[in-house]
Amino acid sequence: MAEAGASAVQRCRRLLVRVVGGLSTACGVVAALMILVSVLITCQMIWVRFVLNASTIWQTEAVTYLMIAATLIGLPYVQRLRGHVNVDLLPMLLPPAWRRWLTLLVLVASIVVIGIMAYHGFMLFHEAWDRNWRSDTVWGVSLWIPYLALPLGFGLFVLQLLADVVAALLCDDDALEHGVFEEDY
Question: Residue by residue, what is the 3-state secondary structure of the chain?
Answer without folding.
Answer: CHHHHHHHHHHHHHHHHHHHHHHHHHHHHHHHHHHHHHHHHHHHHHHHHHHCCCCCCCHHHHHHHHHHHHHHHCHHHHHHCCCCCCCCHHHHHCCHHHHHHHHHHHHHHHHHHHHHHHHHHHHHHHHHHHCCCECCCCCCCECHHHHCHHHHHHHHHHHHHHHHHHHHHHCCHHHHHHHCCCCCC
